[in-house]
What we know:
The chain is mainly alpha-helical. It folds into 2 domains: 1-35; 43-85. The protein has 3 helices and no strands. The longest helix is centred in the C-terminal third of the chain and has 42 residues, at 44-85. The chain crosses the membrane at residues 46-67.
Amino acid sequence: xxxxxxxxxxxxxxxxxxxxxxxxxxxxxxxxxxxxxxxxxxxxxxxxxxxxxxxxxxxxxxxxxxxxxxxxxxxxxxxxxxxxxx
Length: 86
């Protein structure tokens, strides 16, 4: 990973982390464990980043496979054309 991308990731992380604690649900006044797993699975503020990351990763993997398949098809066409010329 080059320095520019690494810097962007670090800045994004630093900017986003404090905002996650800015909503109700992280206080000592609650009777249930505010930091429990149920809170993180039911609050949209916590679930949405996981969903967004999952979508981005699946799009990247799908796009990479699509480009590889496209490259393979182009190479097959080039090989067939070269074999016919001989």
